[in-house]
TrEMBL record:
Residues 99-228 form the Fido domain. This is Fido domain-containing protein. It comes from Rhodococcus jostii.
Length: 249
């Protein structure tokens, strides 16, 4: 059976961009601070990622003071960030590898808890429009349906969830978190040190244009999105290096 992502991997520039992303993240994992101190740097990366991800969806980047409710979008992004850190990440990663749709439901519950009036909608994909079928296809890719390089798979998962908007609210935060789960579970970024969200925030128009190009389904557009995401992973590794350098004093 042919690999559904192989035509994408063969597009101009995709392999090279994926290789650069993988190499950059490998370097940051070998940083002297991250050899033993990675739990501290990963926690900082999670907060930075949450703030940037919230901002991309129109939320605040200002962390609330103790006892304050804070911006609901940021609060959801921070809850997602906590689920992608430490022991919670181990549990979520295990769910992602065997039942990715359950993991997506969990991410949505965390991201959108303060954004919907009907709590029964949390974690439940929208009906119709082929949502269930496309989610099933995505789950098959994640659970062994492709041999494509991890950066490519992360970009496809990210782009597909942005395009599909399976829950109708909080989908951007869920999509970016899912791309992180791909990076962790494939060993691309096993300690979740990278912060690609900062790059996407700095290049918001390119990010939105890239997502629209992916949604078009045109090979050139899909390829440009993958290259963009690989570049963000590479930039996220530089952000992780700055975190490690600061932690080293």
């Amino acid at each position: 059976m042919s690999d559904p992502l192989q035509p994408l991997v063969d597009l101009p520039g995709v392999r090279e961009a994926a290789d650069r992303a993988r190499d950059a993240l490998g370097v940051v994992h070998r940083h002297k601070t991250n050899r033993r101190g990675w739990p501290t740097t990963a926690a900082e990366a999670a907060v930075r990622a949450a703030r940037a991800s919230a901002s991309l969806d129109g939320g605040s980047t200002e962390l609330p003071a103790a006892g304050e409710a804070g911006d609901p979008i940021l609060s959801g992004a921070l809850r997602v960030g906590q689920a992608l850190d430490g022991d919670a990440l181990t549990l979520l990663q295990s769910t992602w590898q065997r039942a990715p749709l359950q993991a997506l439901a969990r991410l949505h519950l965390l991201a959108a808890a303060d954004l919907v009036d009907d709590q029964e909608l949390l974690g439940r994909p929208r009906a119709g429009s082929g949502v269930a079928e496309r989610l099933d296809g995505l789950a098959q890719l994640v659970t062994g349906g492709t041999d494509a390089a991890a950066p490519v798979l992360a970009a496809v998962v990210h782009g597909e969830l942005l395009t599909l908007r399976p829950f109708g609210v909080g989908d951007g935060i869920v999509a970016r978190a899912a791309s992180r789960l791909v990076a962790v579970s494939t060993g691309l970024d096993p300690h979740n040190l990278g912060v690609p969200e900062v790059s996407w925030l700095r290049r918001q128009q390119a990010y939105r244009n890239g997502a629209a190009a992916f949604a078009s389904g045109e090979p050139q557009g899909v390829g440009s999105w993958v290259v963009l995401c690989c570049g963000a992973l590479e930039a996220g590794a530089r952000e992780a290096t700055s975190i490690a350098d600061a932690a080293a004093g």
